[in-house]
Fold this protein.
Amino acid sequence: MIEGFLLGVIATSSLAIGLYFLKFWRSSGDAFFLAFGAAFLIEALNRCTFLFFDKPNEASPWIYVVRLISFLLILTAILRKNYS
């Protein structure tokens, strides 16, 4: 039961952070904030999908593929911001 609660906390936090970055993207138009917002929203959806499984398996390769996409979005945004 505690695992479900903690997954909900992480998902809610990721959602709030993602929306926070999207707010800055709307006001500035900077793609940096869009990439960060999208990455955190992807993480929030990833954590929410765990809540629908009886026994979530953290060792599943699909979970790491989704996280890899999220982290690559962040890395791409940082590199683009520094080298543009």
The chain has one domain: 2-83.
